[in-house]
C-alpha cells in the first residue's frame, strides 16, 4: 500500500513541476496555498521557481516569490532562477527576482556571467542597474 502512495506522491510532484514549466500560475499558486512546499525541488535540484524562470513564465515567478520562494536557491549545477531568467531574456522575471533580492553575482554561472557569456547587453544592463547593498 505504501508503494502505491509513494508512486502517487511522486506523480503529484511531477505534475507540480510540469505546472511550473507550463506557467500554470493559478493552479500552482493554489497548490502552494494549500500546503505544497514552495521550495519543492526535483531530482536535479531545480525548484519550482527555477523551472518557471527557465521556461519564461514571469507571472508564475512573481506568484512563487510572493509565496516565499527562495530566489537564492541553486540547482545541482549551481544555477539560479535569476540566471535562468537572464538566459531566456525574460526582463519581467529578471525584474521580479531582483526586486525580491536576488543577487546577480550568486550562482555558477551567475546571472551576470550568463549575460556576458551569451552576449545579452539588455540583460546585463538590468542586472548592473540593480541596487547593491
Explain what you see:
Keywords: ANK repeat, Repeat. It comes from Micromonospora endolithica. GO terms for molecular function: ubiquitin-protein transferase activity. The chain has 133 residues and is mainly alpha-helical. The protein has one domain: Serine Threonine Protein Phosphatase 5, Tetratricopeptide repeat. The chain is 58% helix and 0% strand. The protein contains eight helices and no strands. Helix 1 packs across helix 2. It starts with a helix and ends in a 5-residue tail after the last helix.
Fill in the keyword field for this structure.
about 130 residues; mainly alpha; 8 helices; about 0% strand; globular; Ankyrin repeat domain-containing protein; ubiquitin-protein transferase activity; Ankyrin_rpt; ANK repeat
The proportion of residues in beta strands is under 5%
Structural class: mainly alpha
Distance between the termini: 52 Å
Number of distinct helices: 8
C-alpha-based Rg, rounded:
15 Å
| Proportion in helices | 55-70%
Provide a brief overview of the structure:
By secondary structure, this protein is mainly α.
Task: Break the fold down into its secondary structure elements and pairings.
Blueprint: H1 2-22, H2 25-33, H3 48-54, H4 58-66, H5 81-87, H6 91-99, H7 111-117, H8 121-128
